[in-house]
Design goal:
This protein is of the alpha+beta class. Helix content is 48%, strand content 27%. The protein has a single domain (2-123), classed as 2-Layer Sandwich (TATA-Binding Protein). It has a five-stranded antiparallel β-sheet. The relative contact order is 0.18. The model is unreliable at 78-82 (pLDDT under 50).
Length: 124
């Protein structure tokens, strides 16, 4: 999801640090990477394999009109959900349940993130 905050000329390092703190309070690991006009924040779960570790990406962009664009992107792996009837026949129902729980966790995380960003951007 992408959201534009008009007329918000903010310091990206402060904004990125506050977003990183938000994810770390939720138990995730957030890695900040700076670019010329963008800040990338990679959100990961610790203790999992490299393939399962990545949860979401947050991108902060500065626009020409001094507005800030915040992008939250996540890859929800829904293959076990789509194949649930087939997987259940072979005892793979736990994969469907695991995928559904992961999807619900991502939905809650994204909702909490946007609530946090709305309050954060209104206070800047």
């Amino acid at each position: 999801m992408r959201c534009n905050f008009p007329q918000k000329n903010v310091d990206f390092s402060v904004l990125a640090d506050k977003i990183r703190d938000f994810f770390e309070e939720k138990g995730f690991k957030a890695i900040i990477k700076n670019d010329a006009s963008r800040v990338f924040i990679s959100v990961e779960l610790e203790g999992l394999t490299l393939k399962e570790r990545k949860v979401a990406d947050v991108i902060l962009e500065s626009n020409a009109d001094d507005s800030v664009t915040v992008v939250f992107g996540s890859d929800v792996n829904s293959a076990p959900v789509r194949m649930s009837p087939f997987l259940s026949l072979f005892g793979g129902g736990f994969l469907t349940l695991k995928s559904l729980k992961y999807s619900e966790m991502l939905e809650r995380l994204e909702k909490d993130f946007w609530d946090f960003v709305d309050v954060l951007m209104s206070s800047l």
